[in-house]
């Protein structure tokens, strides 16, 4: 299964001319490209697909979606397959 789980942007930096971010999904973090949403800010919520932030969500919508996924029992299943990713510092 591949659900678009809302995540919270917790860090933003530039890498090779592209805005990148760390997005938190229920305790798991991933490095995400902000090329499609370059005006995202820390603290905002997004849906990520294939490593790219593709949709901005307000906090209420993100929390409601997370609650519904948890109620359906699919949130833990989706997050279990994710491997934590650390921010790569530029060389």
Automatic annotation (TrEMBL):
GO terms for biological process: protein maturation. This is HypC/HybG/HupF family hydrogenase formation chaperone. Pfam families: HupF_HypC. NCBIfam families: hypC_hupF. It comes from Mycolicibacterium rufum. Belongs to the HupF/HypC family. One of its GO terms (molecular function) is carbon dioxide binding. InterPro entries: Hydgase_assmbl_chp_CS (IPR019812), Hydrogenase_HupF/HypC (IPR001109).
């Amino acid at each position: 299964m591949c659900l678009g789980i809302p995540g919270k942007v917790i860090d933003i930096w530039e890498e090779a001319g592209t805005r990148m971010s760390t997005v938190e999904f229920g305790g798991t973090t991933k490095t995400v490209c902000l090329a499609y949403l370059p005006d995202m800010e820390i603290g905002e919520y997004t849906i990520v697909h294939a490593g790219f932030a593709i949709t901005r969500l307000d906090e209420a919508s993100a929390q409601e979606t997370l609650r519904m996924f948890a109620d359906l029992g699919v949130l833990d299943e989706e997050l279990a397959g994710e491997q934590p990713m650390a921010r790569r510092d530029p060389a």
